[in-house]
Request: fold
Amino acid sequence: MTVAAESAANVVQSVDWLAIAPPTIAAVVGLLVLVADLFVGDKKKALLGWISVAGLAAAGLSLLPILNDDRSTFCLTGVDADACSYTADRFTLVIQLLVIGGALLAALLSMSALKDANGTDKELPEGEFWFLLLSSAAGAALLPASRDLATLIVALEVASLPAFALVGLRHGDKRSSEAALKFFLSSVTATAVTLMGVSFVYAATGTLHLTEIAAELQHVDGQLDTLAQAGVALTLVGFAFKVAAVPFHFWVPDTYVGAPLPVAAYLSVVGKAVGFTGLILVTVVAFPSYADVWGPALAVLAALTMTAGNVAALRQRATRAYSAVRLLAWSSVGQAGYLLVPIAAAGYADNPAEAEKAVGSTVAYALMYAAVNLGAFAVAALVGRTQLLNRVSDYRGLYARSPLAALVLGFFLLCLAGLPPGIIGLFAKVTVFSAAVDAGLGWLAVVMAVNVVIALFYYLQWTALLFRAPEGEPVKHRVPAPLTAAIALTAVLGIALSGAPQLILRFSDTGLF
Reply:
């Protein structure tokens, strides 16, 4: 073989199709739905929704063959053969399960929402909707496997850009357009800041692969040290936008209210998972040598975020239009603060094992939050079919007209509050508390305890309202099958995890180290 032939062979990449199957299936099905939309008549548009649900289910099932088999692809050749752009390890598979499962439940919610919207003056184009949802899900599934900054940023934008359009897709709705604009401007700002930070890190280290960045940052030339520090800081600021950390959270309530409710549910879980996954990868994997900087910074952000979110949720008026969605939006900001706590604790870890345990606490909390928050949005979607303003006061007497929905929503709210019988919520909060205490962040644990008490008030207030005497004669309505399935799936998952919360501990071993 000639030298030229050997060089050509070294740059040829072998693709592990099994490893990249989850995001690939979601992307291919998205394109299939977009093309099929051209040939499917208006009366059969619901078929596109079932194809999308089937595609997301197939993407989830494609995780099964690689559950116990770490795989990497798109790797460098030669001496840096261990540096890969795509890695399907335990951490990747858990997050992919979360985002694909979240997208699947959001798709079930969307089928009812699309049917209700079409024929009104605020229609949702079905083909475009499913294409955008699947495209965003593909980017979200790609992100946890990304092990270089270029792939990470591309995955982040593939997950985010379709979400802008989903928020503003409703025709003739000024509130939806305004929400999409706020979301777009804040996210574009975050991307610009992140890209500047990434470019500084690349200039200082000469590489984009996370593991190589971690090694190079320990030996940065003195002249480039300031550049590296600026790059790390800007990258973290960019991801703080994505996770809606204070003071970069201002877009959340208006975006959730203006978006179709299934899209708000999707953003609250999948969008948040994307941001936190990227934050974990850049801090724990790429920037461990700067843990003394990002650890305290994230601890302060966690305290500010949970406090701002819970105080704002507490101040919501029950009779205000869309107050139920606003309360869930501010609650999600508060929950983001809890999710930041273990990541901050990882910055204080003395060894990789402790850091991995702390990150595992975030993953475990995210799994709990995803199930119960999607369930709460599903019941909100049910109430919103008859109460268009979706106020908290509209939930008064829900038990009289829909007993199962009231019981399920009450259970979800108690899970979010961390009270029995929502054992999984209590278990997840204790896990986060332990991470803070083990890291020596006693002050942050105290702040979290205070915020949990604040959150108890508005969660219990809403729960009590469900069982009060209704105003007027209760009217019962038929619940669509996809919406029923979404509520049932989240309820079963929440109850199962409350019965066996130790199952969550299996995900504390992320395999990042």
